[in-house]
From TrEMBL:
This is Hydantoin utilization protein C. GO terms for molecular function: carbon dioxide binding; iron ion binding. Pfam families: HupF_HypC (PF01455). Belongs to the HupF/HypC family. GO terms for biological process: protein maturation. It comes from the Bacteria. It comes from Virgisporangium aurantiacum.
Amino acid sequence: MCLGIPGQVIEMIDGYGGQLALVDVHGAPSRINIGMLDGDPPAPGQWVLIHMGFAVELVTAEAAEEAMRGLELMGRPRDADLGPP
């Protein structure tokens, strides 16, 4: 698993060649490119790890929590601004 910011898929965004999803990134809805993921697009409720606006890995809720704990160990609190939506 790579270190990335976890996000939970809300919905796929129409158009864009099926490459964009709306993802809840710690309370902030963000448009994320899912083109790097293998297989079918993620379903609403599934978790992804995000790096530079791209979903790079589909993960379990437990792995998403582990990634968030890793970010906290590096000094990024859960309520930190994760960037623009």
